[in-house]
Automatic annotation (TrEMBL):
<keyword id="KW-0472">Membrane</keyword>
<keyword id="KW-0813">Transport</keyword>
<dbReference type="GO" id="GO:0033116">
    <property type="term" value="C:endoplasmic reticulum-Golgi intermediate compartment membrane"/>
</dbReference>
<dbReference type="GO" id="GO:0015031">
    <property type="term" value="P:protein transport"/>
</dbReference>
<feature type="transmembrane region" description="Helical">
    <location>
        <begin position="186"/>
        <end position="208"/>
    </location>
</feature>
<feature type="domain" description="GOLD">
    <location>
        <begin position="46"/>
        <end position="128"/>
    </location>
</feature>
<dbReference type="GO" id="GO:0005794">
    <property type="term" value="C:Golgi apparatus"/>
</dbReference>
<keyword id="KW-0732">Signal</keyword>
<keyword id="KW-0333">Golgi apparatus</keyword>
<dbReference type="InterPro" id="IPR015720">
    <property type="entry name" value="Emp24-like"/>
</dbReference>
<dbReference type="Pfam" id="PF01105">
    <property type="entry name" value="EMP24_GP25L"/>
</dbReference>
<feature type="signal peptide">
    <location>
        <begin position="1"/>
        <end position="34"/>
    </location>
</feature>
<protein>
    <recommendedName>
        <fullName>Transmembrane emp24 domain-containing protein 7</fullName>
    </recommendedName>
</protein>
<keyword id="KW-1133">Transmembrane helix</keyword>
<dbReference type="InterPro" id="IPR009038">
    <property type="entry name" value="GOLD_dom"/>
</dbReference>
<dbReference type="GO" id="GO:0012507">
    <property type="term" value="C:ER to Golgi transport vesicle membrane"/>
</dbReference>
<dbReference type="InterPro" id="IPR036598">
    <property type="entry name" value="GOLD_dom_sf"/>
</dbReference>
Length: 224
């Protein structure tokens, strides 16, 4: 018999399952949340993105070059009046946090104009504003229950898991790109070595043949 006031195991398990499901559903981003994009940036090209932001909103821009060249790109962020808030040249990855000083459309651009032959693959995450609370505190008198506190903890843990998965996917894609590039260079080097070895072998054969060939001499008679 369970003690008075205690819950059966199946009830506790069901509570944890419902709590996890609720946290997963609340992880779906709403309007004005984060924007994650991976795009191709050709050589001698520039790509810009625009976002409407309200005054006082805290924003974070994070980017990383996944493939191409020396894995670097130029980045520039401007406010609605064209004032430069952030500018970096030939960066592989970086993160910048700012608070919008005015309402309007903010612009951030990625440039590969310094590159002549190689195109880049760029990933960026633009976070606008803070995530809404899991359980809003408006019209709330009592504190969070034990199940609600567990839901908040699971929600935060799942957000951390998503961030770690994103960074590990980026590192895996970058490592795969470098490995494929190295494999291509090794293949070309092997073909070049084979051709050089073939040319040297043929040259040695003709050189040895010239050592053992008979040299024919010609004489000319001079009449009186």
């Amino acid at each position: 018999m369970p003690r008075p006031g205690s819950l059966p195991r199946w009830a506790a398990a069901a509570g944890r399952w419902v709590c996890g499901l609720l946290a997963l559903l609340l992880l779906v981003p709403g309007p004005g949340g984060a924007s994650e994009i991976t795009f191709e940036l050709p050589d001698n090209a520039k790509q810009c993105f625009y976002e409407d932001i309200a005054q006082g909103t805290k924003c974070t821009l994070e980017f990383q070059v996944i493939t191409g060249g020396h894995y670097d790109v130029d980045c520039r962020l401007e406010d609605p009046d064209g004032k430069v808030l952030y500018k970096e040249m030939k960066k592989q990855y970086d993160s910048f946090t700012f608070t919008a000083s005015k309402n309007g459309t903010y612009k951030f651009c990625f440039s590969n104009e310094f590159s002549t032959f190689t195109h880049k693959t760029v990933y960026f995450d633009f976070q606008v504003g803070e995530d809404p609370p899991l359980f809003p505190s408006e019209n709330r008198v009592s504190a969070l229950t034990q199940m609600e506190s567990a839901c908040v903890s699971i929600h935060e843990a799942l957000k951390s898991v998503i961030d770690y998965q994103t960074h590990f996917r980026l590192r895996e894609a970058q490592g795969r790109s470098r490995a494929e590039d190295l494999n291509t260079r090794v293949a070309y080097w092997s073909v070049g070595e084979a051709l050089i070895l073939l040319v040297v072998s043929i040259g040695q054969v003709f050189l040895l043949k010239s050592f053992f060939s008979d040299k024919r001499t010609t004489t000319t008679r001079v009449g009186s």
